[in-house]
Amino acid sequence: MMGLMQQHSLLISGLIEFAARFHGDTEIVSRRVEGDRHRSNWAQVRRRAMRLAHGLDAWGVERGERVATLAWNGYRHLELYYGVSGSGRVLHTVNPRLHPDQIAWIVNHAQDRVLAFDMSFAPIIQAVAPQCPGVRRWVALCDAEALPAELERAVPGLLSYEAWLAEQSDAPYAWPALDESEASSMCYTSGTTGNPKAVLYSHRSTVLHAMAAALPDVTGLSARDAVLPVVPMFHVNAWGVPYTAAMVGAKVVFPGPALDGASLFELMDQEDVSYSAGVPTVWLGLLARMQQEGRRPRSLARVLIGGSAAPMAMIQAFQDTWGVEVRHAWGMTEMSPLGTACAFKTKHASLDAQQRLQLQTSQGRPLYGVDMRIVDAAGAEVAWDGRSIGELQVRGPWVLADYYQSGQPSPLRDGWFPTGDVVSIDPDGYMRIVDRSKDVIKSGGEWISSIDIENVAMSHPAVAMAACVAVPHPKWDERPLLVVVRKPGAEVEARELLAFYEGKVAKWWIPDDVQFVEAIPLGATGKILKTRLREQLLELRTQA
Ligand code: AMP
Asked: Which segments of the chain have a pLDDT < 70?
């Protein structure tokens, strides 16, 4: 017997309609590329997203065709999120931190028809435009007067976003009644080998992910929050914040290009930001600023840390020093991205402070909707005992089924997506990432977690950043080498750092050596680029 309830598609247009109707005057604040602070609200976002949709109709951009963005977090980018996907086109967010050749490759692979960009990326556009003949319109996200004549000459079909929107009708746009499984947006994974691969999200996967992300044990966002996504809208849809915020009617504060600690602190403080989300490297900057100011941004209550492992010292600094609650989360581009979040259960109230902190260094338990298993090299399931490790596989309604036109067979195995992360899971479902399978260090047939080694180093007061990589060893195959950037003015030598490990990890896990460097290379999404680091170390060691 079938249920007798209404059938409504889960569509992105439904999110902006909801936010505009019930939270229309809730603010959207943006620090702009222009340098000033801009104020809008959910009603305005809908109004301008509708103009944009009229504009795409006028250009004849077909349903399902791709409209790309190369933009920071800001209100215009948000309008594109809703105007493009809401009207049935596919929003392709391109990561501007990639090399221009890679950007051109991605734009051509996705067959983008329109590309909208922030003016800070004008030099990239000048470089890639001649290589991207399929792009019919280039839209500069600025006022008409701000468009330099030389850029107009260099990029045929270029116009300013504001001039374009001004030409459009203010009449309400009838959002199309799409099938909820139609594509809504796409994002390329930052592959370290080979060409990037495209993940193609659907309206349904996006709305369900936003709903799960809003749950109390995940982000717990509400209409009383002001959320600042530090995580870029060009990287997995800013972890879904633009959608979740609309779903709950939260105020959104966009940082634009100013992601340093001082700028973030000032914006959070002045806009009463209560919640923020980002990768550990950005929090290092904010924590340093909080230290200088001797306080936290006045309303900051919760932060989500993900993308890379949150070091214990960082969780401790937020919580114990500044009273800001940390939620450690794990996800992937292929998972929209959220897969797990670390929130306590009732039984954890009896743990002591150190045990609670230790639990928070795990990546947490699955969100409703995400199913997990761990398998060994032979594909057999591994026990959830908190000790046995293997590769994590996932499935669920916002997990990838296949890459877009990769030319390869689907990566799924028996319907499960292999994550490439090596993990353990405890009997309560808390997952701990040991490593990416390609970063794990294999010493004498046993595995050493580079993440654990890095976490210990990060808790040393003289260490600003640490990375641990495998170096070949004649007897043990591989041994860990610790690479460290010292804090400005701090002094610490290798011997002292290695002694610091005594009693904190198994003796044979202690790195063989420490290499001090000026900087550790970060990838396009703010994560340590271990492939590049290994190359740099090789260069250093050959020079020495
Ligand atoms: P991306 O698709 O670029 O977002 O990268 C996804 C990968 O980032 C995952 O497969 C993990 O290896 C890593 N990652 C994400 N969140 C965490 C976390 N909290 N701790 C450790 N690694 C993480």
From this structure: 190-194, 544
Question: Which helix (H) or strand (E) covers residue 267, if one does?
Answer: helix 261-270
pLDDT, position 26: 98
Q: Domains of the chain (ranges plus CATH)? A: 12-218+244-256 (3.40.50.12780), 441-543 (3.30.300.30)
H helix or E strand, kind and range, residue 42? helix 42-58
Q: Is the CB of 236 under 6 A from ligand 1?
A: yes
Indicate the length of the chain as a whole number.
544
* Closest C-alpha to 101, from 198, 238, 196: 196
Global model pTM greater than 0.70: yes
Kindly state if the Cβ of 330 falls inside 6 Å of ligand 1: yes
Ligand 1 in contact with 361 (CB < 6 A)? no
Task: Supply the residues annotated as catalytic.
Answer: 189, 334, 442, 447
Q: What is the pLDDT of residues 223-245, one digit of tens each?
A: 999 999 999 999 999 999 999 99
- Relative to the CA of 419, which ligand 1 atom is closest? 10
- For the chain, the C-alpha Rg in angstroms (whole number) is 24
Between the CA of 529 and the centroid of ligand 1 the distance, in Å, is 12
Distance 329 CA to ligand 1 centre (A): 9
Contact indicator for 338, 367 with CB cutoff of 8 Å: yes
Count other C-beta atoms under 10 Å from residue 83's C-beta: 28
Residues 6+ apart with CB under 8 A from 6: none
pLDDT of residue 81: 98
- pLDDT tens by residue, 340-382: 999 999 999 999 999 999 999 999 999 999 999 999 989 999 9
Q: How far is the CA of 306 from the centre of ligand 1 (A)?
A: 7
Name the β-bridge partners of 112.
Answer: 66
436 lines ligand 1 (CB under 6 A): yes
Of 456, 439, 436, 443, nearest to 533 by C-alpha is: 439
CA of 352 to the centre of ligand 1 (A): 28
**DSSP symbols for 186-210:** EEE---SSSS--EEEEEHHHHHHHH
